[in-house]
Write a structure and sequence with these properties.
There is one protein chain. By secondary structure, the protein is mostly beta strands. The chain has 2 domains: about 400 residues; about 140 residues, no CATH class. About 10% of the residues lie in helices and about 35% in strands. It is built from 7 helices and 49 strands. The chain has a 20-stranded parallel sheet that branches. α4 runs antiparallel to α5. The longest helix has 17 residues. It is globular. The termini are far apart.
Length: about 675
């Protein structure tokens, strides 16, 4: 069997995070063949001797650098010409199918799509380099109709360039055939790039995308500032941008994740993503959205030395109550739908999610806070690794209900990895994929937390300085939390976040475990788990009470309300699942969570989590059955309760975890002393 569930902890925890610093296929700053823009005019055919950005973009060869005369330092190019009314770039087409467990979305493929108006368009590798200008250059859309600023089919390198005023709007198209695209795509208010978007020392602010309010994915609004296949961002500010529509994602940044490309990793380093907003019926990732395109994709989002703050996900205005009751709003700061997410030395604070709360039959909530991963009917997200980070002070506001802390929601992750020295507020593991003991899967233990230096349930005021430690940009107004106020750039650490991360590299150990059943033998592993929990944690009567409650659930379950009488869960052979002994993991390997016959098994573990949380066991944190629990409950060898069952438990020793050398603003972390947690090193 393919070891698709292998956590690859060693690779994940290594956190080898040096940003590529590449040019996305463009030209280096030493290129002497650059075109030099010497005018701020927006003209495609300027007078002889005058070079505008528009004319340079038209004549530059693929990857040829475009630079600026020093006399233009700090200037603004007010763009007013639409280069293309119907910009053609690749884009995803999603489908939906009904299965017994509910609707399942799937990727149809990637096709040429109509992205609507763009002020500037290029179908080649583009390099726009203002690094010679101390104050840079600004590109501002100032035309009379909505348009994004720049669309590139190829790789884009953008250095020391600000972009503002972009506005991509979904507009109806004339449809000849039923399968034709009915609407233009609202993607990337500042830039839409089908390739690598390599942005360095840039500010992207006050850009917006606006989709239709139908639930169709084609009418969604993605990437208020940036929509790109791969994002490589360093020392940038992405703030005050928004996405509005029936479906909205990535108020600041939307990374597709390497579709059709050999490159599968997006990176965000030494940057700020703050004060952005998404508003819709289905809204995900107000700051950053990391897409995967479908089950099994292996793209990675790596975020280092970055502040993600005061981004807001909420319903669009004036939704009728029946629609409001259908919505999803998740990931005020970051959201991942597939693949891998790695975070090191990040500060994710004061992000907010607002919406009408509801919970489905499997306990899956429609609201999730600061960082969130998808909850799918089939597993869709591989793992999340977090080290040296502050993730606290993020909230969920239920319309008509309470406001509460909700900082990291794992969704249906396969594995959560801590690299140590984190400060978390509220951790929610309620929907992480349940333990599976399948031989070679190594997936009984999925919550590799806590590790050295970790702490949860921390108050924001205990880890950042909210009085004098917030550095803001008065020139950019938030459209997220604290609307119209200056966006925060970064937060100084405080309290228990100071002087924590050791100077020397250190290792992190994880517990891996699985079990094997002899051919033809009885699999009573779940009953053994209950008995051992009762004994180890001294919970008198726990196993019997839990079993009775769980079997009452099985015997009252109705999988088909349209058919008279109760329709219980059934195993793959059609036998009713009415007792604990009939509850098993049945597979298949990749899509098992969406199979209805696996739902009793999933329900067992979710109910066990709830029971353990209610028991309030001393020393057991929000992870509940994490590495410590599995190592305490089982060892390698045949089980005395049933010698036909054999567990395998071992320690996976990671390579050394190394802290980052500098912080978000380039301040060196003391090489001889413990460093601070989060994006900023105290001065």
């Amino acid at each position: 069997m393919r070891r698709f569930l292998r956590p690859a902890a060693a690779a994940a925890l290594a956190l080898l995070v040096a940003c590529s610093g590449g040019d996305g296929g463009g030209s280096s700053s030493a290129d002497g063949n650059a075109l030099v823009v010497n005018s701020l005019l927006d003209s495609a055919s300027p007078a002889a001797g005058t070079v505008t950005l528009r004319s340079a973009l038209a004549t530059a060869g693929s990857g040829q650098a475009i630079r600026f005369d020093r006399s233009l330092d700090g200037g603004t190019i007010a763009l007013s010409i639409v280069a293309d009314e119907h910009t053609r770039l690749k884009g995803e087409v999603m489908g939906m199918r009904d299965e017994p467990s509910g609707p399942v979305s799937y990727l149809v493929g990637w096709f040429d799509r109509d992205y609507g108006r763009s002020a500037l368009v290029a179908r080649k590798n583009v390099v726009i380099d203002a690094s010679d200008l101390p104050s840079g250059i600004t590109l501002a859309w100032a035309g009379g109709v909505p348009a994004r600023v720049l669309a590139v089919e190829g790789n884009l390198t953008l250095i020391n360039v600000d972009i503002t005023g972009g506005h991509s709007v979904t507009e109806k198209l004339a449809v000849v055939n039923p399968d034709d695209q009915p609407w233009t795509l609202a993607r990337g208010g500042a830039v839409a790039v089908w390739g690598v978007a390599n942005l360095r020392d840039c500010r992207l602010y006050d850009n917006h995308v606006e989709g239709d309010f139908d639930s169709s994915r084609d009418r969604g609004a993605f990437g208020g500032a940036v929509y790109a296949d791969i994002v490589e961002m360093q020392r940038c500010v992405v703030s005050g941008n928004s996405a509005l529509g029936g479906g909205a994602a990535g108020g600041g940044i939307y990374s597709v994740g390497g579709a059709g490309s050999a490159r599968t990793r997006s990176t965000i380093d030494q940057s700020t993503v703050s004060g952005n907003a998404i508003r819709g019926l289905f809204a995900y990732g107000a700051g950053i959205y990391s897409d995967g395109g479908g089950i099994g994709r292996s793209k990675t989002l790596l975020v280092t030395n970055t502040t993600v703050a005061r981004n807001l996900a909420e319903p669009s205005a004036n939704l009728p109550p029946f629609l409001l009751a259908m919505g999803y709003w998740r990931g005020g700061g970051l959201y991942m739908s597939n693949g891998y997410m790695q975070l090191q030395s990040v500060t994710v604070v004061e992000n907010a999610v607002r919406g009408k709360a509801r919970t489905d039959s499997l306990g899956r909530r429609n609201l999730a806070g600061g960082i969130a991963a998808t909850v799918g009917n089939a597993h869709a997200v591989e793992s999340m690794t977090v080290g040296h980070s502050i993730i606290a002070g993020n909230t969920v506001e239920e319309i008509g209900g309470a406001t509460y802390a909700h900082d990291l929601f794992t969704g249906s992750l396969m594995h959560f990895h801590s690299a140590g020295y984190n400060r978390f507020g509220k951790l929610d593991f309620s929907q992480i994929l349940v333990p599976v003991g399948e031989r070679t899967w190594e997936s009984l233990s999925r919550r590799h937390y806590p590790k050295v230096g970790d702490a949860s349930d921390v108050a924001l005021t205990g880890v950042v300085d909210l009085v004098a430690g917030i550095t803001a940009d008065p020139s950019i107004a938030s459209v997220g939390v604290g609307p119209a106020s200056p966006v925060p750039l970064h937060y100084a650490p405080a309290g228990t976040a100071l002087d924590q991360v050791p100077a020397a590299p250190y290792g992190v150990d994880e517990i891996l475990a699985e079990y094997d059943v002899a051919q033809g033998a009885t699999d009573d592993f779940l009953a053994i788990v209950l008995a051992r929990i009762e004994q180890h944690y001294r919970l008198t009567g726990f196993a019997a009470a839990f079993k009775a409650d769980f079997e009452a659930f099985l015997q009252s379950a109705d999988t088909d309300s349209a058919t008279p009488g109760l329709q219980p869960y059934k195993d793959p052979d059609g036998r009713p699942i009415l007792a604990l002994g009939a509850t098993h993991f049945f597979g298949p390997s990749q899509t098992w969570p969406r199979e209805l016959y696996n739902h009793p098994y999933i329900e067992f573990w979710h109910r066990l989590d709830a029971a353990l949380a209610q028991a309030a066991i001393g020393g057991m944190g929000p992870e509940l059955l994490g590495d410590v629990a599995w190592q305490s409950l089982f060892t390698t060898g045949a089980l005395p309760e049933n010698p036909s069952l054999r567990t395998i438990v071992w320690i996976d020793r990671s390579p050394n975890v190394t802290r980052l050398v500098v912080d978000q603003v380039g301040t060196a972390r003391n090489a001889q002393a413990p460093a601070d947690i989060g994006a900023i090193e105290a001065r």
